[in-house]
Structures are given as structure tokens and as C-alpha cells.
Design a protein that fits this description.
This protein is mainly alpha-helical and 146 residues long. It has one domain. It contains four helices and two strands. It has a two-stranded antiparallel sheet. Helix 1 packs antiparallel against helix 4. The longest helix is centred in the N-terminal third of the chain and has 36 residues.
């Protein structure tokens, strides 16, 4: 029966190259997380209209004082291990959720009156998806190619 002898060279070099790609990918994923949040933040701020004289279609929140709009911030990246990163984006003012989702009411007083919803975060996310996908693809390509 014939026998074969196989000699493989460069295993250490391949391992080193793969380690370098993994490190670049880790940096790229952190960059994608924060840049994605910043893209959504920018688009969320653009959802506010400055003039209340004309009702927009679909309904948008009106920028009266600018406090809610200015409270929208992104934060991150936060490492979750294994090259997994997250970033947060949203308003810091307590009534931000009420503006986004509306409120059915209940209780007494002005603070409990029903309010119509004026989404600004969800539309911003939807409008950001293509840009975030392109960002992700670009960062992965750069990390892999070195």
C-alpha cells in the first residue's frame, strides 16, 4: 500500500494573520456600534419639525423649546464580550417615551391627560437601516482586508 508524506508550512503565519483579523474585527464592531447610534441620533433629531402652523404627515413632534430634541444622545460602545458591542441612543428627558408612544391617560391633573403619539425614534431607526448596513459592510471589509 502506498504511503504519502505531507508537509505543511506557514501554520504559525496563518494563525498570526487570523489573530490580526480578529483584533481588527473587534475594533470595527465597536466602531459600528457607536457610529450606528450616532446615525440614529442625528435622524431622530431631524424628525422634529420647527413650525407648528402646518400639520405634517405623518404626525411629528413639534420643536417648541428644543429640550426633548436636545436631550437625544448616543452613548457607547459598551463591550458585551466576544467582539459584541452595543450603544444606546435616546432621549434623557422623562417625557420622551410619552411623546414617542403616546399616552392613554388616567388619574387626575394635566400630567395624566391623554396625548397623541409623535414617533421620532422609531422612524429615525427605520430611516437609518440602509446607512447602518452599508457602514457594517464597509467596516467588515476593511477589517478583513487589513
Amino acid at each position: 500500500m502506498p504511503s504519502f508524506y505531507v508537509k505543511v508550512k506557514g501554520v504559525r503565519e496563518v494563525e498570526a494573520a487570523l489573530d490580526a483579523v480578529a483584533k481588527r474585527m473587534d475594533v470595527a464592531m465597536a466602531r459600528v456600534a457607536i457610529k450606528s447610534a450616532q446615525i440614529i441620533e442625528k435622524k431622530a433629531k431631524q424628525e422634529f419639525r420647527g413650525d407648528s402652523s402646518q400639520p405634517p404627515q405623518p404626525p411629528q413632534p413639534t420643536r417648541r423649546t428644543g429640550n426633548l430634541r436636545n436631550s437625544i444622545h448616543s452613548d457607547g460602545p459598551n463591550s458585551e464580550g466576544n467582539s459584541t458591542y452595543s450603544a444606546k441612543v435616546g432621549p434623557t428627558l422623562i417625557y420622551g417615551r410619552r411623546v414617542e408612544l403616546g399616552y392613554e391617560g388616567g388619574g387626575r391633573g394635566r400630567g395624566h391627560a391623554p396625548t397623541r403619539k409623535f414617533p421620532y425614534m422609531a422612524p429615525a431607526y427605520e430611516k437609518s437601516r440602509d446607512e447602518i448596513t452599508s457602514l457594517y459592510q464597509s467596516e467588515v471589509r476593511k477589517a478583513v482586508m487589513g
